[in-house]
């Protein structure tokens, strides 16, 4: 805890100086508290996959669990989740401090949407979810293709992750009032209205237990939002529990 505040000293120039000094000290305290919260969440997030990994390894060592293909797959999954959390965290730190570098080019957003659909076909098929795209282009945009692909990939991955077999995910790209819009609509579990404002917050999950099983880091949407903001765009979500969700990016 920083204890840098000075007692206020009257109303003259010195008084103003002490007031603004105390304001800065308060801002530092807020930033320090945010950093402490972040470190605490990271430690918390990494602890579960790490404990699982150690548990498997000890069971293997003690002969409680025989070595099997499934066991090694579980070990791999837990290690991979830790790496994903760390990779996402690095992206997020860079993005939030304005140090994520963007290589901006002119391209057609429709191509990116079509590519995202093709890239996720195998996952969709494995999940038993129909994945289609409706694009009305061309939609010329100026931006970083890789980073915007990451945004779309996150939205499509989430849509597939939170939609049961037999459901559908539709990607849409269309122009609106001179801007380019991409929508990812799913027929999944949806998000409670009370939860909706929190989906873009770091490490926020509707149901941590369930979501952990799906292998998410809880950082995907936070990073996606930062990338979209860095493109002077907007991202928002609408949802009806039990019916589905729509995530919408406007560039
Ligand atoms: P995660 O890696 O856990 O998916 P995200 O930041 O991408 O993290 O998403 C945060 C949370 O928002 C998810 O854990 C989930 O609870 C909710 N969520 C995101 N997308 C959807 C969706 N399409 N349908 C239902 N819930 C969603």
UniProtKB/TrEMBL annotation:
Could you name the domain of life of the organism this protein comes from? Bacteria
**Domain Histidine kinase, first and last residues per copy:** 41-251
According to UniProt, the name of this protein is histidine kinase
Q: Which organism is it from?
A: Dactylosporangium fulvum
Lineage summary: Bacteria, Bacillati, Actinomycetota, Actinomycetes, Micromonosporales
The UniProt record lists the HAMP domain at: 1-33
Q: Where in the cell is it found?
A: Cell membrane
């Amino acid at each position: 805890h920083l204890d840098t505040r000075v007692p206020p000293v009257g109303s003259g120039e010195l008084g103003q100086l002490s007031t603004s000094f105390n304001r800065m000290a308060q801002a530092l305290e807020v930033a320090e508290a945010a950093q402490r919260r972040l470190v605490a969440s990271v430690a918390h997030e990494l602890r579960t996959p790490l404990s699982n990994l150690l548990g498997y390894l000890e069971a293997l060592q003690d002969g409680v669990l025989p070595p099997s293909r499934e066991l090694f797959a579980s070990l791999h999954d837990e290690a991979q989740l830790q790496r994903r959390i760390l990779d996402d965290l690095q992206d997020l730190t860079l993005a939030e401090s304005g140090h994520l570098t963007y290589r901006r080019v002119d391209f057609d957003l429709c191509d990116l949407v079509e590519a995202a659909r093709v890239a996720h076909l195998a996952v969709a098929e494995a999940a038993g979810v129909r994945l289609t795209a409706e694009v009305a282009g061309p939609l010329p945009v100026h931006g970083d293709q890789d980073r915007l692909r990451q945004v779309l990939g996150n939205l499509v991955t989430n849509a597939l992750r939170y939609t049961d077999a037999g459901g559908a995910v539709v990607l849409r790209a269309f122009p609106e009032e001179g801007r380019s819009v991409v929508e990812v609509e799913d027929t999944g579990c949806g998000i409670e209205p009370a939860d909706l404002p929190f989906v873009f917050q770091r490490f926020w999950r509707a149901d941590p237990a369930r979501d952990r099983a799906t292998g998410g880091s809880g950082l995907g949407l936070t990073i996606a939002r930062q990338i979209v903001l860095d493109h002077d765009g907007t991202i928002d979500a609408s949802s009806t529990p039990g019916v589905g969700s729509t995530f919408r990016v406007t560039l």
